[in-house]
Amino acid sequence: MTRLTHVFYEEAYFTKDKVCELENELEKRKIKLYPATKYADVKPENMLLMTGTQNMVDFAYDNKIAVLGLEKESAQTKLSKVRYVYMDAQMITADDILLVYNRFHGYPMTIGYTMRTKIRELALEDLDDLFRLYAKKGICDYIEPLYEREEEEQYQKAYIQNMYGLYGYGMWLVFDKTKNQLIGRAGIEQRTVQGRQVIEFGYVMDVSYQRQGYATEVCEFLLSYAKEELGENLISAFVHPENEPSIRLLDKIGFVQKKELLLDGKKMLWFEREMGL
């Protein structure tokens, strides 16, 4: 995976104070910030351009350079070929820049770290490990199995682009931080249940990592992330009545059982947690 090293910006959109702020933020990540007029000979894969000029967008597009689009509310025309456009350049952060860069190149975003794990988005390069995880005994007792390899690859490719790319969340991968080994999945997704739009919380953990507090550690982190970073205040979870370990876990981390229901033809228990509590 290549790394972002240089960011070039169109000066007309930024105040001097904002430039200083971004310089400081990016410097902590060892990324240089320069005006677009001082364009340097940097490899396209190591740079990002922030611009509101279509000609510059076209240049970046032709040279496979990541672009963060800039527009003013008074703009008569809209930028084309740009997936991410910001209407107020003064609100852009270093995290926004890294997000646009990673999305452009298809690199998975790291969601965060717990004491023993790393949580990040899935990349297509993870599919072999994902299939190995799902092939283990007990993993698919209460969750759907993966598709056949080719169909799963197409599904995950669309998922990365649409779920991660548009919503910024989804089902993520959980790694043992010391071994850099895939040990589970966890995350949140939107779902319509009984005519109601809910945020569903889900998780699965490698059998060899169960009963050691890993699931609790990861789930507590992600619930905090859902509230603090995504602004979600009510989280739902749906569990098979015979899945006693998951029921105990949900009870431990503050979920309350609301009702029984049929979900996709299966009897399930509906749990909720109000994040203000």
TrEMBL record:
PROSITE patterns named among the record's database cross-references: GNAT
Transport is among the record's keywords: no
One Pfam family hit: Acetyltransf_3
Alphabetical UniProt keywords: Transferase
Domain of life: Bacteria
All copies of domain N-acetyltransferase, residue ranges: 117-276
Annotated InterPro entries: Acyl_CoA_acyltransferase, GNAT_dom, N-acetyltransferase
UniProt-recorded Gene Ontology molecular function terms: acyltransferase activity, transferring groups other than amino-acyl groups
Keyword Transferase: yes
Protein name: Protein N-acetyltransferase, RimJ/RimL family
